[in-house]
Amino acid sequence: MSPAPKIRQLAFRLAVILSLVAAAGGLLIVLGWWGSIPILPVPLPDRSDVGAIGGFALLFGGISTATVFMSGQWRWLSPAAGTVVLVLALWGLVGGFPKGLPLDAAPLSLPSAATFLLLAVGMLSLRATRQLQVVATGVAALCALLVCIYKLVVYAYWFQDPSGRVLLLSMPPQSAALQALLALALLGHLVHRLKKPPGKAPGLVLGSYGLMVVICILGWAHFNHEESVAVRKDAEQLAANLSRVLEEHVYRSFDPIDLVFGEVARQARTSGLGSITESREEWRNLRATAESLPQVSALIILDAQGDFRLFSRQFPPPGGNYSHRDYFEAHKAGATRHLGELVAAGTSGKPIFTYSRRLDDSDGNFAGVVLASLEIGYFQAFYRSLDLGPGAAVGLFRRDGELLMRAPLLPDIAEQDLTRHPIYTSLIHQSPAGTFVGYSPYDGEQKLAYYLASDSLPFVINTVMGMNSVIMPFERRFVQSTGVLALVLALMATMMLVQLRALERTALSYDRVRQSQRFAQGVLDSVSPAIAIVSPTGEIISVNAAWRRFGQENGASDSTSHIGQNYLSTCQGAEGDHAEGADLVAEGLSAVITGTSKEFEHVYPCPGPGGERWYRMKVLPMSDGSGRVVVSHESVTELKQAEAALKTAANTDQLTGLNNRRAVIEQAESHIANARRHHHPLSLLMIDCDHFKKVNDTFGHAGGDEVLRRLAGIIRETCRTGDIFGRLGGEEFVAVLPYTTGDGAKILAERLRQAVEHASVTHDGDVIIFTVSVGVATLKTEMDITEVMKEADQALYHAKANGRNRVAVMAGETVSPEV
After folding, report:
1. What are the angstrom distances between the C-alpha of 464 and each of 138, 228, 414, 457, 583?
2. CATH code of 768's domain
3. Tell me, what DSSP letter sits at residue 126?
4. Are 53 and 107 a contacting pair, CB within 8 Å?
5. Could you tell me if residue 362 is inside a domain?
6. What are the angstrom distances between the C-alpha of 229 and each of 28, 237, 286, 468?
7. How many of the other CB atoms lie within 10 Å of CB of 622?
């Protein structure tokens, strides 16, 4: 079995398993909610939509499983059941469920309802046409899965560190887990029904769109992350501002009490405690002070034994000992200030808490306690003036978690205890201010709590905000962004399917074209010239077998021989010795491509391992009107070799192997023209073998020929690279010396004369010694080759007339003989 069927079969099995697991989970939740079975309740605090979530999961899982096994018989099952679920989801989203259904009457949370709607759309479209099936089912299932994954990831962060991250979705995690299983099951059904398109191009399309989908998902996640951070910051800032206002109110409430405490402590230290507690005048002053402070219910002074010594409401005070109270024990142990626990006042029955200070005598020993009983009604009135919003609350706590005041006020406020809450056991010891997300012990609702511990007094301000009010704006934007993501993914999926369909049609037409191309390629391969088809942009489209061999012989690295490369750009970018020829080819090729020329032909050399080769390049336009051209390279090496042989024979002296008269004069004319153009010197030597007729008469023509060949060799050895030399006829030779002045030519001529003088030729046992006379002339501006040779010939004549075996230089109108 190929990999694709195996993957589809695996997807089918996973879809069945996931559907059954989701149905089982939904059944477990429904039973735990409906029957209140102790072993089945949801592990988190109950929510109003737990029963609905379980019922939906059970219904979806059952439908998904039944669809797999009964799709051949009951094709209406999936659309009908999907429609039912869709209606129920909308009903639950808008106004809650009917009382008769085994579901909660309250509506679903926004994220839960939106996810179930996506799953319902995916279920409905599972039986649609292939294109709609891929778009609707795939996009709906993927978006539902992303919502669930987002919820589970955020919940995992919150579970690891409750104070570090806000749980920004009201859908419970068990709902997200079951919905994620259902979304995966839908994706498994989709994969099972689809078939992988053939070829590599669809894979590239799928990969590119997959990358775009990942980018969109990352953008969606980043947007929601930024939104969650903004929501948390806004909520924290609001709670922090409110906490600071409350802290300032507490300080302003305690400041006048601290002034009274300070005065009492001063008198106790200087005059003794009796000067205050035994004086009716001091009692009147304390009573007036207590009555002027609305937050103070009474002012009390206890001595070092805990006995009641002064009471602002009564003089003398009622008896009693309070040494057992926590504030008295704290001050006796050394505490300067202390906030007492919340208690019910003995006379009024209203809840109060105490604020006290230690008193010392003149020796610094414990002398007693001064305390103020504070009525929470004063603080309650101020807290009620604040706009707290739904689900919000503020509280005043001791640093050990004992509740002093809360708004809104609870009926059993004196019995509330948060001494083991993380805020008071650890968080305030790590940082004096921060946030904590958790469930309130008072109402069981999820709250965002901001705590602020005083740095000078032992109290903590706790501002609590209901998570429903915090997350409601985020949930709306979260669902909206998910909808936008679904639309974008649907658009991309539609474009992808259209492109895949176009690729399928292209593949079919490509097969037909490939058949015709094979026929044309067979024709091309049967032709001996190297042929390439070049596009209007200069790119090599196709080559024949001869071209591939041609490319391999010239160093191509693969058998395609530059297919796909731009022939025109390669010629235009050529450098080095072949740049001029490559530019010519580029111009000709471009002219044929653009239509300015009907054809182009160029013959060029091509060095190879076996020596230099020659090719004829021809460029002709194709007759199909496509703008493409045919480039052919045909070997003309044999023809060129024959032409070169004929040219060599025509320009070479057969006896000496030097240039003949015609070749020398042609090359000399070119060098003279170049010397005139660039104003550089040029000289010419006329060389004649002395008494050559005597050599022929003495040793025969064969001996004379040996002398001429020897003289030609000496001339070849003496002249420099770039000099032009040859035989004019008989015993007369000529040498053209470019870039050479008269003095330089005279030196070279003398070197030649001496070399000949010391040379000899052996012929038939006879040694032949010979000499030469040399005439030197230098080019003047107005001269041509004939005039230069004439002057050199005149110089040669003077050399011979003056005894031969010498060099004569033509200087102006006179000859300067050189021995």
Report:
1. 42, 18, 19, 21, 83
2. 3.30.70.270
3. G
4. no
5. yes
6. 35, 12, 52, 16
7. 12
Of residues 475, 706, 731, 791, which has the active-site annotation? 731
Q: What is the pLDDT of residue 347?
A: 55
Q: Give the Cα separation of 659 and 404 in Å (integer).
A: 126
Kindly report, residue by residue over 550-603, the tens digit of the pLDDT.
777 766 555 445 777 888 887 877 776 667 777 888 888 888 888 888 888 888
Catalytic residue list contains 731: yes
Tell me which residue has tokens 């001791």. 398
DSSP 602-639: EEEEEEETTEEEEEEEEEEE-TTSSS-EEEEEEE-HHH
Q: Can the peptide bond before residue 317 be classed as cis, meaning omega within 30 degrees of 0? A: no
Are 572 and 585 in contact by the 8 Å Cβ rule? The answer is no
Joined together, the tokens standing for residue 257 give 């009490």
Is residue 277 located within the same domain as residue 165? no
3-class state of residue 355 by DSSP: strand
Q: Which of 66-75, 276-285, 636-645, 737-746 has the highest mean pLDDT?
A: 737-746
Q: Per-residue pLDDT for 27 more than 90? A: no
Cα angle 435-436-437, degrees, rounded to a multiple of 5: 130
Give the residues across from 817 on adjacent strands: 808
**Based on the structure, what is the number of domains in the chain?**
4
Residues 314 and 359 in one domain: yes
| 337-391 tens-digit pLDDT | 888 877 765 555 677 788 899 999 888 899 999 999 888 778 877 877 777 677 7
Q: Among candidates 810, 63, 60, 169, which has minimal Cα distance to 473? A: 169
The whole-number pLDDT of residue 51 equals: 54
- Report helix, strand or coil for 433: strand
